[in-house]
Here is the input.
Amino acid sequence: MPVQVDRGGLLLGEQPLPLLSGEAHYWRIDPADWPAVLDGIASLGFTAVSTYVPWSRHEDAGGALRFDGGLDVERFLALAAQRGLHAVVRLGPNCGAELEDAGWPRRILEDPACQARRPGGGRYLLPTATGHAFMPSYAARSTLAAVTAWYDEVVPRLAPLQWPDGPIVAAQVDNEMGYHFQSHAFALDYHPDAIEQWHEFLSERHGEIGRLNAAYGTAYPAFGAVPAPGDGREQPLARRLDWVRFREHHLRRSLATLADLVRVRGMDRVPLLHNDFPRTTTPLDQGALERSGAVDVAGGDIYAPKEGGRYVRDFARHLDTSTRLAYLAEMGVGWLTLPWLLPMAVTPLDVEHNLWRALSGGVRAANVFMLVERDRWYASPLSVQGEPRPEYAGLFRRMLALLHDLDWGTLRRDRRVLLLENRDEDRLVAAGALLGDVVPAFSQLLPLDRRLFDDPSDRGSRLAAWTRAAASALDAAGVDTDRASTSALPDLTDYDVVLLPHVDAIDPPVLQQLCAAADADAGVTVLAGPVEVPGLTALPQPDAASLARWLPRPEFRRDDALLDLTNFTGAGREVLVAVNGGSAALTAHVHTDGPVRLIGAWRPEELADDDGSVIMELPAWGVQVFTVTRGATS
Amino acid sequence: MISAEVRLHALDPVEFGRLCGLLAARDLADAGELQVLHSEGRVVHAVHTGGHPVRELPAVVTDPPATARALRESCGVARVVLVEESALRAVAAQSAAARRPEQSQAELFWAARKLFYDSPGVVCDPAPEPDSWVRFAAHVRGLGDGWSVLAAYDGESCVLALAGRWQGGLLVEVTTPPGPRPARAQAAEMLDAAAGVDGPVALGLIGDLALLDALAAAPDLPAAVLAAAAHPDTLASRGLP
Here is the structure.
């Protein structure tokens, strides 16, 4: 494939390309303004423009597809290429994008044969940005036939624009595929075609019906007779767990199906991407998705104010650990303009703080969503005419220039601790969820807290408390930490310490890997809790004291836990990112071994000391990036 | 009350962000509900919406109104909601069956809310307040098609302005009005051509920033807006009772 994925971005032939793009929706911009908008994007230093190609906007009332005038995506991409911009095209079918139909033609959403089903056959109603719709089933043959017809038209049209013949360097398949924001294990999808896939899954998993019956304690005559569970109180547990696993499998299978359709129609010279909303637990699994080969890059989307900065960082760490290119397909800048549904204030400080949070978590490729203002969005760096808003645009110009100067894609976090999510425990918690036929998409449809439909046992809360305590202790100690799911383990020998949340579930092959790593020769300490695991070191209650004896000494140590320091090395350089995670200015003592000079790269500043002790000052929510020089300072 | 095709464009990011910030702060002021799911009287699960642990929960609900009352007193929450499982299933099915594609999103939510609270299997203590947005929407519909303007002054300067266009009782357009901002003494001009919108302003509220703060903090936002004409921080209004 001419365009390859590299840990630092993309490779166009042998030439590295940092994938730093900005989202602009051509169909929401006056075509007369396309040149100015693309000029604006290029002027800020972005390497690419990203856009959805929304099916529902290209299909007219008569069902014909149009690509003229304001829908002339090929012209838009050609203009991008003229300005030296590459392109990422997001082909759907699902788009979101604050569209009232989420990018699906209304005829699909209202077609009973296409609609996703609840247990019992009911349809799944989702409030969209401004409306509401019954969402489609990805298993339904009718849906797939319709999507195929869309791809039949749009993919051959865009395929000739793939690099090196055009600007397209990546294509995204679907968008945030995850049961339409419904993580409840028993809400979706019970469409007859999905149930057929469920039976195929059981057959592949168990081999023959006798083995399934032995595992379940049942006497089903055939796989086709095994009902899909609809509630966490149904027995046996083994059937519910299989359903939870099936939901993960179904997402990967659906994405693989769509990706194959795209590749076969000619989009086969560039990597295929996907993006999850910011959830790493079942049914989503970024690491397993990439390893399945369904897509080339499993990325994620994140939107948060600065107060959610650690959440951004931790999601970035998960992507950095679990995927080949830590990619934020949507790095939220600005917010949707629906304060009656999801109000969020966005300021330049929010943007600056969270961009660096993402980068300090290991993100090396990102798409700013939305770089260009459009209907139903505010606080974008460029107006809909392409004019820069100084308070935002200047930030990106500086940041992209700095990332280029630092050759950011070659830098790696210095991390020797891994905090795992236990996928088996996660599945057990999911398998206890209640009332799949009732749980709403959002509480506006049913004025009940969605947690009322969660597993009533305390397993989830015990695991969450242990993980929170571990994360908090690691943050207090200033230790950079990788994050991954046990379903997609990284190389455990890369770490000094691995932490595993555990009550009573762990996949035997995973346990085998953890025990092998914990073997004295491998040199990894594997800590498990709140309930101990034979073969691993028990950690019933993670806190600073109980972890201190195992944690590696950070390269840079500080006396204020609100100061996050992330050390990067690569290509003979060392970079330190300092983030103040609090709402007050801070002054902290920072220590490293030996003489050091820290040169401010984000703000002018120089700190130096022959004993390696400096004083760092940051404003509220402030960020600094230092290049690090070791050795005598005078 | 919002059209599915509503257009939100040319919004000043600072001003709109400020408004979003006020509205986002409202979400943090949850008084807390204790919601209890029971199946033929046997308690299945309970959640405190404020995230507090749930204690002192009976295993069985034999007299829902009495249980709800007792729980509200013992748990110190703003409301207790007891939901019987089979009733919940019926409500969910009724909601799905009642949905019409042409309903606005708000109408869908109001209808779902009404079905839920009207269900005999749902017992609340105290009973929920009627949704004031329904009254607000009816009031706006009664004003006819036209624009609405919201503006706030910080001292002499107008620091926030938002204009919305209504058609058939639905909000179809929202934008930052392009017109010049008059000085505080002439704030009422924002209700006329000075707002820069291309039509009559049927609904308007202009006040000091303190007015927005008060509205954002009001437990019943739409009721507070409808009563805002008499608020001491209001400089001018139109179309309000």
Summary: Chain A touches chain B through 47 residues (CB under 8 Å). Chain A has a mean pLDDT of 96.
